[in-house]
Amino acid sequence: MADETVFDFLHSELVNYVIEQSELKNKDAKDEDLSNLEYLGFSTGYRMIERLTKEMPRFKDELDTMKFICTDFWTAIYRKQIDNLRTNHQGVYVLQDNGFRFLNNISNGKQYLELAPRYVTFTCGVVRGGLANLGINSLVTAEVQSMPSCKFHIQVQRS
Amino acid sequence: MRSSVSYILSSSTTEPNMSHPDYEQYSHDHAALLILIRHIGSQLKPKTYNKFYDRISKLSTVKITDSSGQVRNIYVRYVKEYPVENNDWGDFQTHRRLLGLISIGKYDSQLELNEICRVHESLKVKYTSTLYDSRCILLKPNEVQSPGETSADESNKSSPDSDVIKDDDSSPYDSSSGDNLKSSSSTDDRSSVEKSAEDARKEKVEKLLEKLREEKTPDSKFTTPSNFKSRALFYAETEACDDLEQQLTEYVNSLFWVLESKRLEKSREKLERVSLLLAPFEKKDFVGLDMESRNNKKRCTGRVTKHLGDLCLQAGLLPESLTYYSNAAEILKSVNDWLWLGAAYEGLCAASALILYPNIQRTLPLHRNASLQEGSPKRTSISTTTNPDLTNPKKDVLNILTPEDIPKRYREAIIHYSKYQNAGIIETEASFKAARISVDQNYSLQAASFLQNVVFINITLSEQEKTQRFEMLSDLYTQIGFARKAAFCHRLAASRYVSAQNPTPNWSQCYNLMLQSFPGHKLSLDPTEMCTSPHQMGWPSLQIHLLTELVVAAKRMGHSALATRHQTFMLQTMWDHLTPTDQKELAIQLQSLSAQCEGAPVPLVLDNGVVIPPANLSNIPVCSGFTLKNLQPHLQPRKIQMAKQDIGPFLFTPINFGSLERKSNKPQSKMDFLWVENDLCEVTLKLVNPLPFELKVSNMRLLTAGVVFESIPETVILPSETPTSLTLNGTPKESGELELLGYSTHTLGVKSNCRLRFMKNFLPHYSIEVIPSLPVMEVKTSLPQSATFSTFQNFENVVTSASISLYNGESTECIITLTNTSQVAIEMLEVSIQSILEPNLQEQIFSWDAEEIQKQLPIVPNSSATINVRLYSAANFLASGFSGPELSSGVFGSSHAGSISLSMSAGPSSLPSRLNSPISHQSTMGGSFHSRRNDLNSSFRSSNSGQSSMTTQGCRSPGVLALPQHAASSVVEGQLQFRYSGGTGLLAGYCRSCSVFITLEMMPSLQVTNWDVLPAETSSQFYLVLDIANLTSQEMELHYTSSKHMLIEGHESCRIPVPVDRCPLSKLTKLYMENGIDERLDLDKICSDHIANLVDLRWQLSAIDTNGKATLKGITLTPNMLDIVRMSPLNWDVSINGDAVKPQEALSCEAGDCLEVSVKIGNSLEKALRHLSMSVQFYQDHQNGVCNYRLENRLATTGLSRVLVPTLEPQTSAEHNCNVLFFTPGQYKMDIQVAAPECVSATASISGHVWRFIPPVEINVSL
Amino acid sequence: MAICVAIIGKDNSPKYFACSNPDDEINLQYKVLSSLDVIEEKLNTANKVTDFRELFLGTLYSLESHKIYGYVTNTKIKFIIVVDSTNTALRDNEIRSMFRKIHSIYADNICNPFHIPGEPITSKSFHDKATSIMFGTV
């Protein structure tokens, strides 16, 4: 499907662009600065969620919201659902995607593992943004052990 | 929830219907006995009355044990007035009947007493239809003291103030209420022990009351009139009235028993034949209706049953009432008697509520200002507070409603009521009751819907009642936390108070209600809160509207101060949300408002205790910069300790500029410079007037904390939208830490304190150290100010300048006057000069008498001291080697290093004459001789040059002399630095430093272009030959010795010989003693100093009569010159044919004569000279620079022409003799020299040195 | 047609306000503001009661003159429509669909890159759409 590939290309260009910018800004920084990328994701998610939840009934609770993220939200972006959702019911949720779209096209194996963060940051932002607009302030991190599967840790900030 | 079928059954005719809604009602009031407490007579102070009322109303329930020994819980409700019409509804709902009357009155005379009694009786008549019993509390004159009132006395003593009840409501009441409980329980006991019929009980009560009355009345000298049938309770106003509660309990008892009896007889009636109970407006509906019809019979029974329910409820028989009500409901529903069905439902609800939530309390009348805080938080629902084990048993009560059902039933009841136009009041009240229940159940939405319903019920109400309704609504909304809704209602109520229909508009009420609506609109009265809150969630447009209304209200209220305050507040807080035009208009309005009452930054307190915090206009004008200024550099205090650095040019920069820079990038509240007590200090503000018209800001001062600071008010007129900077001045009156908090303004007629703390992008405050006061000194000079300032380092503390131009060598005096312009004596004064000159030259040019200065201290205020500074134009009068190198370079380029160094050092003495000589021997002789030749010709140079130059003197053109770089005058700049201090400042270790900038133009006077030395006639002297150029345009008279002087035309030059004593050996000996590293230079120096000291050239320009002296300081000498200048260490003794040779004299002989030359040299040094080689040589000088040494065929010498002297001990002499024989006539010269060998000698000073007998001996040989 | 459409942000500050009769705006604003209490209360209860999960909250309250309807998005953005009580043509369903339309144009506007979430809505095209919805012309 063309539109999807387009999205993939856009994303990878986005990543490259941000990396470039950050390198231009501070060369001496050893680990690349992905915060901009994360922010792009955030505002994307923040705006997008408005659309996605339009037809949704009001969410019962946090878990309900998370389910929505795993299913409709994920499908809307990645054409697939989260494969596994786990929670400790204390505001920590682990979303596991066994074939994360942005990692699918990277050869699995250890070769590019250290580059993985670039390709999950945007998504972290998107999730965080979506949740934020739904009134859940959270901290989203991703963990890639073996391509192309990826774990997103959502830590809800209880204020 | 309004019924769709409205107003069926209800007749449109205006029946006497209950026109006075009672919004205060609780559902519990259904069970209460209604007692009116009336204030009678003018004597009684309202306050006392209220005290009594409050105290009485504390007794809201009384436990009474009935005949069956069952304890009844009787509720009592007290009202202050009760419209008699409402009594008419007593049949409909018995709790609307007024059962009791307590009137309170005070009398001082029998007359008044009678009056009170009369009124009381009339009241009884008024309510006679329902009244059971009454009491009259009579406050008798204070002075009357009765034995029965000792307690009162004590309480009197205990509290000096006359009225106990007034003062301490807490303590006596608690105790008394305690009594009350006891008393009531005691009555219980009493009643419980003797189980008699109720009438017996009644008597009992009667008796008791009698007794009480007995002990009350007798002491009073006044007596109630005979027609006074009621029970009177006599108290002194000052009395604690301990038994009041007891009395009340008794009273309630009596009421209860009457009620109970009524209930019993009603219940005994045969339900079949009871008459139809009617609501007031129903009267004519049933006229002519067949009462016997089955339907109506049921109606009657239904209504009666309901009525009984009411009575039971009041009599404290809840279960019974419930059964009655539910039965009634059944019956009434069947006959579609909606109104009464509603009543039955309401009864059900009331009873159930009473069981479920027995402890719902009427919220004490809340004070207006109290409701100003954020809407009171939701009540914790009663249902939760009543713990289950209490509620569960109640569940099994027959046909009790569940908490959920209560609102439902109420809803139905209301719907039924709504079918009757005339039942509007009932409906309204029902809605309120229902709402209150839901509030307690914490069903906010339900409560809201009930309250919402109230708005719809349209009943003809007085404005007063309408407003009351809204106030009540808002109170309830507040209770369920609907702050905004409450605010909404408050606003409606407010507008009601001043609505057009309202005959008596009450602006202050309106105003108060407006204020109460603020929290709902997220408005705080404190501007700082509004500004500081990160994102205020209120609706600006509404807030602005509200504020505008508030201002109007305040204005109409006649409280213009408030109006101004609120207008200011609006401008301050809502500025960003206002359109420019609004901003302009509001500002203008403010101006006109403040014209009536000027706004001041003080909190306003309203009558009801509300405090309106000050509103400051900190954004008109906008302040974009607040900078503390350092003092003028010459006034800045400096630490005395750091004196050394103080005069160092680079120290100030970090302080002065550094501080500013630091503020720009990293703001810091503590200034790193100092202010001085009693000195004018400055703060500059950047102000922008955001308004489209010119703004006058007057009385701007600095707001400070810490040390006393006297701020000088400023007035500024700000054009629109253009940044203006303003300087605020002030003087600290003490030393210590000063804090600047902001500034005050007075604009648009509003005084404001603009504190940085509350303003954006400012530090909360700036603090600065103020040091004790220091003197201030004014400096004047006798010389004219210099036109220009050079960019000399740290010239910022220069206070004045002096400039003068002097010819080199000239000197003058500059008188500097120091005046103490402060009130502090100057006790310490240091003077120092700083310039870029090297120190010794500096002190040549500038000099003063330090002691003289110190003598003049201290300089008391307004007196002055003077300092004489001597300025001397010290210049180098010697033309430095300008021509030497370039002239001779061409020559020496090809020759040897040694000679170069030589001629270089001899640079100055470059006379054209000697040019050819080296060339000549370059050409004539071979390198082998070189060293010697070199010495030779150099040796000649000294002498030759002398003569030859002499000859060439005349033909020297001034043009050659005009030396551009020397002709140009040079400028010397110096700063005379004064560091002074005194008074407390000095003790604190501070001083001030200012400086005078002195520009000294040094004009060339004369210059020594060349110099050379010639041996004088006497060996003790030599001639210093100077080429003097007069660089001035005037004729110069030059005195070069005591006796000799000459005139030099402007820009002319001439050569003068100055006889100088030779440099005595004594000055030199040490040279020869130990060998310094560069004794050559030492030698130079010693000699040149020697010369400089001896030669003094005084010049005089008679035309502009100035005079000065030139010095030869730093004159450089070539070795050969040195030989001449200094005494030779060898003294020569040359004799020919026995007679000694005198210098400068030629001796003559004939060819063939044999001359005997004997040379004796003596060592006049203190040490031995070794390995001297003495030689005698003859030559012919052709006077053209060419010397001929090849004289083999012209003369012959016998004896050695060269001998070696191994050692020459001090003060000894060596002699050498030889003979010479001339063959041909001619002019000959004999050159005698003694050479010390190279580096053989211990002392380098004389190694390789050659001494000559000068001048060479001339011998004219004739035939 | 409705006489007023309002959009209120998470923090209950007004984001957009349009009404058919500008002179009436202030009063309507007061009404709308006071209706927020009901919305919040409903939302609170909504969490407890599960059947309350529709975004459309129905009538918040009705005054003699106006009926006020509420609708709250999942992102706690509140839409409010005020209609004239005499206007019986508008039943809940019509109102509901109006809200839907508003929601969708709002979502579009949020995705407009020039709109900063949380700021008041100033977009002209949004205003046009909103008013046409209000007047029931779409």
Helices and strands, with pairings:
The complex is a heterotrimer of chains A (about 160), B (about 1250) and C (about 140).
Chain A: H1 2-25, H2 35-52, H3 62-78, E1 84-87, E2 92-97, H4 101-104, H5 116-133, E3 138-143, E4 150-156
Antiparallel strand pairs in A: 1-2, 2-4, 3-4
Helix pairs in contact in A: 2-5
Chain B: E1 32-40, H1 46-57, E2 61-65, E3 71-79, H2 84-87, E4 98-106, H3 110-126, E5 133-140, H4 150-158, H5 164-167, H6 170-193, H7 198-216, E6 231-236, H8 244-268, H9 294-314, H10 318-334, H11 338-356, H12 382-385, H13 388-395, H14 405-417, H15 424-441, H16 444-456, H17 463-479, H18 483-497, H19 507-516, H20 527-532, H21 540-557, H22 560-574, H23 580-596, E7 604-605, E8 611-612, E9 622-628, E10 637-639, H24 643-647, H25 652-665, E11 670-676, E12 681-688, E13 695-706, E14 709-712, E15 714-718, E16 724-732, E17 736-747, E18 750-755, E19 766-771, E20 777-781, E21 798-807, E22 811-820, E23 828-835, H26 839-845, E24 846-848, H27 850-856, E25 864-872, H28 884-892, H29 897-905, H30 916-924, H31 930-952, H32 958-961, H33 964-967, E26 970-981, H34 983-987, E27 990-1003, E28 1006-1015, E29 1021-1030, E30 1036-1039, E31 1045-1048, E32 1053-1061, H35 1065-1073, H36 1079-1094, E33 1097-1101, E34 1106-1110, H37 1119-1125, E35 1130-1136, E36 1139-1140, E37 1147-1150, E38 1154-1163, E39 1169-1181, E40 1187-1188, E41 1195-1198, E42 1202-1208, E43 1213-1222, ...
Chain C: E1 4-8, E2 14-19, H1 25-48, E3 56-62, E4 66-72, E5 78-84, H2 92-110, H3 124-134
Antiparallel strand pairs in C: 1-2, 1-5, 3-4, 4-5
Helix pairs in contact in C: 2-3
